[in-house]
Amino acid sequence: MLLILLACTAPSDTADSNPAALPEPWVDHYQATSVIQAGGFSFDEEYLVRRMVDPPAGRIVEEFIATADGTLTETTLEIDADAATFTLSFSDDSYSGTGTLEGPAWAWTGWESHSVAQDGSTVDSVDTVDEAGAIHAEKVGYNAQGEQEWTLVEDLAPISEDTWTELHGAL
User: Fold this and answer.
1) pLDDT tens-digit profile of 27-50?
2) Which of 58, 123, 137, 163 sees the fewest Cβ atoms within 10 Å?
3) Is 84 left (phi over 0), alpha (psi -120 to 50) or beta?
4) How many other C-beta atoms are found inside a 10 Å radius of the C-beta of residue 69?
5) Local structure of 67: helix, strand or coil
6) pTM (2 decimals)?
């Protein structure tokens, strides 16, 4: 399963070439629901998401924790805010990819990405952020021959650190 989240809520219109002017690092928390459709079947999944955003380092580390079994998936995004692009990699080396960002640096309102798995399958994703900070993602997965295999619609609702901690403790 490929999960990519990239939203930043701290406002900034500075370029990452001036680290002194960048926002301080922060952490965001989300509760996510995903609906995956593949082969005529539909599967629902829920996650807790913790995102550690470090503008001076040009990095975002995302932790997705499946509420069903506590499985952790970690994604690292290396951001080039000046070019409005990023690269991504997963802690298990399952996917790597690139993407483009829309909106002001470190307060992006949308992005698109293309990721490739070790087996040659790919995922295209289009993500948007609304004014409340909620994220809506639409992903399409293709096999190595370029044939569509699945779609995923994911919605992430911002939650407080206390709520995240409480929900995480219940896993």
Assistant:
1) 999 999 999 999 999 999 999 999
2) 163
3) left
4) 7
5) coil
6) 0.84
